[in-house]
Amino acid sequence: MKRRLAAACLALALAAPAPPPAASGRDAIVQTSVINALMIGRYDGVTPVADLLRLGDFGLGTVDHLDGELIVLDGRAYLARGDGSVVDAGGMTTPFAVVTPFDEDGSLPCPAAGRLAELEAALDAALPQKNAFIAIRIEADLGSITVRSVPRQEPPYRPLEEVSKGQSVWTRDGAKGTLLGVRSPAWVRGLTVPGYHWHFLSADRAFGGHILNCRIQEGVVRYDVCREWEILLPDSPGFDAADLTPDLSRELKRVEGAREPAPAK
Amino acid sequence: MKRRLAAACLALALAAPAPPPAASGRDAIVQTSVINALMIGRYDGVTPVADLLRLGDFGLGTVDHLDGELIVLDGRAYLARGDGSVVDAGGMTTPFAVVTPFDEDGSLPCPAAGRLAELEAALDAALPQKNAFIAIRIEADLGSITVRSVPRQEPPYRPLEEVSKGQSVWTRDGAKGTLLGVRSPAWVRGLTVPGYHWHFLSADRAFGGHILNCRIQEGVVRYDVCREWEILLPDSPGFDAADLTPDLSRELKRVEGAREPAPAK
Nearest-CA neighbor of B57 among B79, B81, B29? Predict the structure, then answer.
């Protein structure tokens, strides 16, 4: 019976649209590959986005050929392209993404913030679990938001820091939408983005990207503290041959941690 | 139905003596806490060994109060104490351990080796998956083996490097037994032990510890390549308050990577 049930469980896990419980029964944040692989230019998709949607309904990342900013919200995957368009990403693959079943642990009113760094400081004070991962979902009215996306790349791939110099940047005033954030511990060096990583998707699902800055008038913060971290390592000779040991922290901060001053009112 | 089945799955995962399939259906290596927490002296058990035995039947680590070297073999947990005795560890808790369902991916004859470093060089040549985790099980006739264990600690805990200076070391000639190894990628800094980490358990289950050196006459190597890495983070204010960011690589290498020259014949 147990074997039959276990087989049924595996079948369910592979077939179910909703995320299965984590192996340990705890709330898991799951990522495919490691950020250093993306930093050195490994942009080919290794995991179907559809597989990630079975492991989490909330998250962010990129897709095959670095063709934009991936946003996973309410179990649907969206891609904010370098040309500003937002398309469905459910059929794509990804070289790097982070997802979790968003299992709300608490909420708070979103503090008014003149810039992204102010919002992050307020969240640090409200969420002291610095050695856990925290998924943060903010529904907000934005005085203004500045996002970027990146253009599709073709092999031979250049390092992410070079590619990001060709990013497109947009600022919108008076937008409504969702800020999707993942805060990772400071000690995740080389594996994922330390600290805050934010993507945005507008309420009408027509506009989004990687957040460089925002001015928040009001909103609601909901968060999910994750204490199980799963890393799915690509099974390929190319991945195994890659040198993922260099310390690319400074380059990563310039690419993913870039913050812009608050746009003028 | 799906919800009932999912609930049954969770119940099975929590109750089953055998490891449940990993959330992603891939072969997972699971660890509790991170090695830097052990390095700075967080020796209180945070995870029941019985829970780990549901996530893997093979592995190594330590137990509450750093009371010796933990060995998980064929689904049973053993503790090699600082006084040389081996006892059942199934009812203990652990501050740091690594386990996997040992799912053999291949085997090879164990090369004769005059010292542990020779064995590791031969395994590096045979197992090129340097960016994956590999569980290695070697049944061997040993010309000689040198192991260490550590004495139980009491709070306030001192850092692991200090404690390890008080380790007990034994050498046995003509032993038969199992070498349990975990080889982790070079980029796991601060989270687990990079490279090889070896424990030993004698065939009669009476002798074991953390391997410092060995001379192998013959044996069989079996290995399991793991491409899903799960880290279970302790849920405690003490863990969240700990500064796990310092680079303790050199100290860790002295503690866990120590190798002794081959004992004289």
Answer: B29
Tell me how close the Cα of A108 comes to any Cα of chain B, in angstroms.
21
- Give the CATH architecture of domain B24-256: 2-Layer Sandwich (3.30)
| Interface mutation target, options B10, B230, B236, B243, chain A, most CBs of A under 10 Å | B230
What is the DSSP code string of B174-189?
Answer: EEEEEEEEEEE-TT-T
> Which of A20, A190, A234 is facing B23, going by the closest CB pair?
A20
Instruction: Find the helix packing angle between A2-15 and B2-15, rounded to 10°.
Output: 120
Q: Can you read off the two tokens belonging to residue A65?
A: 């050929």
Per-residue pLDDT of chain B (265 residues; tens, 9 = 90+): 334 444 444 343 433 343 343 444 469 999 999 999 999 999 999 999 999 999 999 999 999 999 999 999 999 999 999 988 999 999 999 999 999 999 999 999 999 999 999 999 999 999 999 999 999 999 999 999 999 999 999 999 999 999 999 999 999 999 999 999 999 999 999 999 999 999 999 999 999 999 999 999 999 999 999 999 999 999 999 999 999 999 999 999 999 988 875 444 4
Domain boundaries, chain B: 24-256
- Chain B nearest-CA distance from A125, in A, is 14
Interface contact A108, partner B, CB < 8 A = no
Chain B hits for A191, Cβ within 8 Å? 187, 191
B240 and A130 within 8 Å at the Cβ level: the answer is: yes
By the CB < 8 Å criterion, does A169 face chain B?
A: no
CA distances from B64 to B1, B44, B49 (A): 41, 5, 10
Spell out which residues of chain B touch residue A227, defining contact as CB-CB under 8 Å.
Answer: 232-235
Q: Measured between beta carbons, which residues in chain B are less than 8 angstroms from residue A242?
A: 131
| Cα within 13 Å of Cα(A23), Cβ side | 31
Give me the DSSP letters along B124-172: HHH---TTSEEEEEEEEEEEEEEEEE-----SSPPPHHHHHTT-EEEEE
CA A89: distance to chain centroid? 14
pTM: 0.89
ipTM of the assembly?
A: 0.89
